[in-house]
Design goal:
192 residues; Four Helix Bundle (Hemerythrin (Met), subunit A)
Length: 192
C-alpha cells in the first residue's frame, strides 16, 4: 500500500521544511544575530510531539513487517528503533542548548552551533536512509495484508503543524514557514 509510504514521504518533506528553518536560524546565530528562540523551541516541541509519537511508530511498524518478510532487506537498513532513539537524544541535546542560552547559562557558541548542526545533518541523513532503503524494501516485500494491518494499527492523528490541526503552540512556526515559502516563491518569480 503505497499510500502509507506516500504519506510518510510527505511528512519527510515537511520535516525538511523545518530543517531549512533551523538552518536559517543557525545562520543568524553564526553571524552574531539573534535567532528566533521561540521558533527553535516550537520546532523542538513539534519534533517531540509529532515525529516521535506518531511518525516514527509508523515507520517502526513497517520495519517490523519488513523484518518478518525480508530479513535481508531489514538487515541492509539496520536498526530503526536504535536510530530513532539516537535521533531523540540529538533532539534533547539541541533542546538543552536552546534552554541553556535562554536561561543565560554559560555555553560556548560552538557548543550551541554543533548541537543544532548535528541535529540538522543527522536528521537529513536519517530521512534519506529511510527513503533509499526502508521504503523501497517495504514496498517490494510487504503484502496487502501487512499494509492493512499497519493501517489498522496506525494512530489516526493529524499533523499539528502541516495538516491544519490548528494547534496554537505551532501557530507562529506555521506563519514563519508560510512567509519563508512565499519569499522563496517571490524570489524565484523575480529571477525568471
Amino acid at each position: 500500500m503505497t499510500e502509507i509510504i506516500d504519506a510518510l514521504r510527505e511528512e519527510h518533506h515537511n520535516l525538511e521544511k523545518l530543517l531549512a528553518v533551523l538552518e536559517h536560524e543557525l545562520e543568524l546565530f553564526d553571524h552574531n544575530q539573534r535567532p528566533d528562540y521561540e521558533i527553535l523551541q516550537s520546532i523542538i516541541q513539534y519534533f517531540e510531539d509529532y515525529p516521535q509519537s506518531c511518525h516514527h511508530p509508523k515507520e517502526e511498524m513497517i520495519f517490523e513487517k519488513l523484518r518478518a518478510r525480508d530479513p535481508r532487506g531489514a538487515a541492509a537498513y539496520g536498526d530503526i528503533d536504535a536510530e530513532h532513539a539516537i535521533e531523540a537524544k540529538r533532539l534533547r541535546k539541541f533542546g538543552d542548548a536552546v534552554n541553556a542560552v535562554l536561561s543565560d547559562q554559560e555555553l560556548l557558541r560552538e557548543t550551541f552551533h554543533l548541537a543544532v548542526q548535528d541535529f540538522i545533518k543527522n536528521q537529513r541523513d536519517h530521512l534519506k536512509k529511510e527513503e533509499a532503503l526502508l521504503f523501497p524494501a517495504a514496498a517490494k516485500a510487504l503484502t496487502a495484508e501487512d499494509w492493512a494491518d499497519i493501517e489498522a494499527r496506525m494512530a489516526n492523528r493529524k499533523d499539528p503543524l502541516f495538516e491544519g490541526a490548528g494547534d496554537e503552540k505551532f501557530r507562529s512556526l506555521e506563519q514563519n514557514i508560510l512567509r519563508w515559502e512565499q519569499e522563496a516563491e517571490d524570489a524565484r518569480t523575480a529571477a525568471r
